[in-house]
């Protein structure tokens, strides 16, 4: 299989031998075989001066769309490579390979069947540790795709009928997760914070789609996964949020790794890839609703869910630099993975990071991007009902009405409820509010609500991501009482 030019091609026999010898070091042999079978059919020797670039991505992982699904759809990488080729005199061919999670993608990189790949923070470190054993497979971490500084991209959901309100209620229950994934890491860490361990639950190692179906069918009691699966389950009314990974207090992110050997031979390819990421980021920031709708057409993920993650003040922020907070969180991730024996103790995180392509792409703005901790896509506007500006990320809300190609902003969750109550002629397609304490973006109709009768009308109703979060707030604010979403809407009028 050719990974770069034909002069660098290897025989199919050698490639097969490498796959056989390395497969068991990554994931189960059956998983490796399944992952590689699809790839082999898409690869081949390309004649002349054509460089083949094999890109591994996860089409349904919302916070990597700038290095996969949307980048591919928009042809941004191919455009950037075409520009590079005008300078180098080289032609480029991109082979896109879709994966369900980071583990099989890492197996493919070890087999040198993928040159550039995107995955979550836990799989990233596993990837770097496992690939470094091989000169031709060793990788480096080059850029961030999407992130959440609180850690709210990984969450735990339970069936709507579940009586569980805290993680402690899952003791002895079955929990679906993908071992080695960011969701798995979040869940294990959360259990430790709760004074528990994975020995206290029955873990079912499943792909996210299988686990989501298991929750709906009642085969498991909880579902611990990475973006977008938890909120997809919530939006489809198949479950409710039990635990937000942000409560672990550790940032979570996905990023891009490249094979060092390939990057060294073709630095212009890595530069083109990061440039394409930057252009896709611009699209996500300037056309978030359009991007959500396009993503839905490609993946089948509802646009309302895509917008929750990738829209203004969404759960995902898109920027290229590997922020200091990510470097620090990787140290914690490493400790966890060393205990799991997925990463060796001597693995050098700083040596794994190479931001040269990001620095080149961002130029003089690199430091500003790296140090900026605000969501780069804020929700702004004017609330004409409450007559207030929309801008505070702690309160800014919005509604997407059916038939509209835009959303309507609201200054606060209470103002949003008034907007929904006032607009009886149209049905809300999706309603978004921030958690009253954490600011985490939520579906309003799936939030847990409290009402504070003594508060000003614009701050009377308070949404929370989980029942536990609402209960904690209520204990310190005894004047508040529970209220369901429909009642809150019916009680909200412009005449208050």
What does this entry look like structurally?
With 496 residues, the chain is an alpha+beta fold. The protein folds into 3 domains: 6-149 and 252-371, Periplasmic binding protein-like II (D-Maltodextrin-Binding Protein, domain 2, 3-Layer(aba) Sandwich), CATH 3.40.190.10; 155-248, D-Maltodextrin-Binding Protein, domain 2 (3-Layer(aba) Sandwich); 381-491, Beta-Lactamase (2-Layer Sandwich), CATH 3.30.450.410. It has helices at residues 12-22, 29-40, 69-74, 76-88, 102-110, 121-131, 182-193, 208-217, 229-235, 260-265, 267-286, 288-299, 303-310, 324-339, 349-352, 356-362, 366-371, 413-422, 467-476, 485-491; strands at residues 50-57, 91-98, 116-120, 139-148, 155-158, 174-177, 202-205, 222-225, 240-244, 252-259, 317-318, 381-383, 388-390, 397-401, 408-410, 428-434, 441-443, 448-451, 461-464, 481-483. The chain has a 6-stranded mixed β-sheet with strand order 2-1-3-10-4-11, sandwiched between helices. Strands 7-6-8-5-9 form a 5-stranded mixed β-sheet, sandwiched between helices. The radius of gyration is 23 Å and the shape is globular. The protein starts with 11 loop residues before the first helix and ends in a 5-residue tail after the last helix.
């Amino acid at each position: 299989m050719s990974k770069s030019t034909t002069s660098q091609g290897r025989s199919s026999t050698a490639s097969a031998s490498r796959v056989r010898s390395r497969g068991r070091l990554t994931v189960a042999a059956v998983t490796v075989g399944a992952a590689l079978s699809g790839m082999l059919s898409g690869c081949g020797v390309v004649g002349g001066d054509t460089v083949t670039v094999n890109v591994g991505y996860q089409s349904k992982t919302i916070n990597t769309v700038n290095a996969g699904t949307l980048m591919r759809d928009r042809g941004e990488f191919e455009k950037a490579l075409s520009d590079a080729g005008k300078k180098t005199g080289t032609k480029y061919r991109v082979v896109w390979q879709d994966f369900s999670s980071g583990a099989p993608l890492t197996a493919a990189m070890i087999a040198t069947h993928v040159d550039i790949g995107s995955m979550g923070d836990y799989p990233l470190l596993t990837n770097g540790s496992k690939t470094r054993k091989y000169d031709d497979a060793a990788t480096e971490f080059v850029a961030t795709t999407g992130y959440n500084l609180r850690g709210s991209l990984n969450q735990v959901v339970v069936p709507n009928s579940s009586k569980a309100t805290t993680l402690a209620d899952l003791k002895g229950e079955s929990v679906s997760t993908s071992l080695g994934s960011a969701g798995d890491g979040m869940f294990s860490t959360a259990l430790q914070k709760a004074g528990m361990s994975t020995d206290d639950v029955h873990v079912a190692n499943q792909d996210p789609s299988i686990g989501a179906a298991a929750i709906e069918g009642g085969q498991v009691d909880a579902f611990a996964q990475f973006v977008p699966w938890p909120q997809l389950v919530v939006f489809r009314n198949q479950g409710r949020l039990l635990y937000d990974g942000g409560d672990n207090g550790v940032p979570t992110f996905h990023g891009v790794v490249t094979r060092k050997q390939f990057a060294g031979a073709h630095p212009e390819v890595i530069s083109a890839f990061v440039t394409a990421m930057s252009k896709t980021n611009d699209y996500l920031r300037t056309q978030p609703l359009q991007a959500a709708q396009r993503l839905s057409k490609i993946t089948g993920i509802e646009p309302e869910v895509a917008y929750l993650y990738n829209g203004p003040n969404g759960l995902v922020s898109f920027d290229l630099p590997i922020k200091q907070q990510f470097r620090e969180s990787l140290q914690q991730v490493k400790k966890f993975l060393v205990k799991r024996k997925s990463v060796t103790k001597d693995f050098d995180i700083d040596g794994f990071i190479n931001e040269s392509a990001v620095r080149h792409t961002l130029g003089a703005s690199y430091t500003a991007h790296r140090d900026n901790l605000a969501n780069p896509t804020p929700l702004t506007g004017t609330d004409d009902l409450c007559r207030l500006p929309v801008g505070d990320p702690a309160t800014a809300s919005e509604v997407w009405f059916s038939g509209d190609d835009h959303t309507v902003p609201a200054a606060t969750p209470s103002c949003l409820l008034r907007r929904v109550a006032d607009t009886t002629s149209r049905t809300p397609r999706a309603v978004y509010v921030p958690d009253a304490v954490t600011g985490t973006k939520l579906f309003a109709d799936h939030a847990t609500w409290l009402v504070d009768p003594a508060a000003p009308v614009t701050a009377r109703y308070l949404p929370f991501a989980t029942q536990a979060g609402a209960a904690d707030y209520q204990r310190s604010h005894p004047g508040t009482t529970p209220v369901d979403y429909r009642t809150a809407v019916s009680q909200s009028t412009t005449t208050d």
